[in-house]
Amino acid sequence: MNAKKRPLQSKEFYKHKKFKSNKDFNIVTLFKTELQRILINSNELNTTITDIQPYGSRISGLNISDSDVDFNINYVSKSSAKNVIKSFANKLRQSQVFIKVFPLIGAKIPIIKCTHLNTGVDCDISFNNISAVHNSHLLNHILSMDYRIKPVLMKLKIWAKNIGLINTNGFSSYSFYWLGLFIMQVLGLLPAIRDLQKSVPEILVGQWNCAFSKKPQEDIVKKQETLSENDILNTFYKYYSNFDFNKFVISPYTGYPLLKTDFENVEQLPDELWRYKQFYKENQECQKLLFLGSCPFKMYTQDPFQHNVNITARVTPKVFEKFINACAELKTKNNLS
């Protein structure tokens, strides 16, 4: 289902709006307070909201000034998800705090898209999607590990957006960040996600462990202080222009590429992917739940927590080829051997 685009407001619409800086208030806290006031006391459809948590770029620290605000609402209900989400959307409309409220119930991950009236900032609300919250906090922690990480990721995102790689038929910002972070793992700047999980109690979402150590990682990370931001970017272009996507899977969890054929014969996968092996045995009759799924495209990038999820599954062949060609072009332009 294609997302409806929010109509652009005229300059006159925002003329009298007072946009405050983060010093004046925390917009995430404001939105959360508003959502709690509007939704949490709603007893319609015998639905109980158990938690409202922000996630996305404003939590990871990879936001820009006009970034959307993303929230996950955990709820329990005897009603269908479709009816619950419609009910929430109606409450938001009635509040007149949020406008342009569009529930996208048919999307892979159902969301409500809306805009906060007083700030003009867009808001996306998902449901029972707690893994996204953990992913955002993981990214935020990773940014704290090295001063070069955030600027490199932001430069990659801007580059990818400018040439049309990040869109609804291509990469998400999230998946592109992990392509960049995987390069830093290869370079020794970052630990594998498995290493961040070794010494901390599990936090299970379904059967996937979303825990990670928040301690400094000096004992794991090789600082590689001689590498500049441009060195990392050039490694990115060179690495992916040469990467055999037909043969290998990008795995931030392990920190190294995995053979795609091993996902067809899971006993060949490394022991550290025991959770996926177990998941495969329990779900092998349902192809769409498995990592390789029925994706007709070439690019496979494993989610750092949910090992059955390919975060680049939506990338079309056209965007994939554009990505490879763009990397190869910069490799040639920058004389990268």
Task: Summarize this entry quickly.
With 337 residues, the chain is of the alpha+beta class.
Give a description of the structure:
With 337 residues, this protein is of the alpha+beta class. It has two domains: 118 residues, Beta Polymerase, domain 2, CATH 3.30.460; 202 residues, Poly(a)-polymerase, middle domain. It is built from eleven helices and nine strands. It has a five-stranded mixed sheet with strand order 1-2-5-4-3, with helices on both faces. It has a two-stranded antiparallel ribbon with strand order 6-7. A two-stranded antiparallel sheet has the order 8-9. Strand 6 and strand 7 form a beta hairpin. Helix 9 packs across helix 11. It is globular.
Task: Provide the descriptors you would attach to this structure in a database record.
single chain; alpha+beta; Poly(A) RNA polymerase mitochondrial-like central palm domain-containing protein; Beta Polymerase, domain 2; disordered N terminus; two-stranded antiparallel sheet; Poly(a)-polymerase, middle domain; membrane; RNA uridylyltransferase activity; NT_sf; 337 residues; transmembrane
- Tally of distinct domains: 2
What is the name of the CATH topology of the largest domain? Poly(a)-polymerase, middle domain
Count of discrete alpha- or pi-helical segments spanning 4 or more residues: 11
Q: What class would the helix/strand composition place it in?
A: alpha+beta
Shape: globular
Radius of gyration: 21 Å
Share in helix: 25-40%
Order of helices and strands: HHEHEHEEEHHHHEEHEEHH
* Top-tier CATH class of the largest domain: Mainly Alpha
CATH architectural designation of the largest domain: Orthogonal Bundle
The percent range for strand residues is 5-15%
For the biggest β-sheet, the strand order reads 1-2-5-4-3
Q: How many beta-strand runs?
A: 9
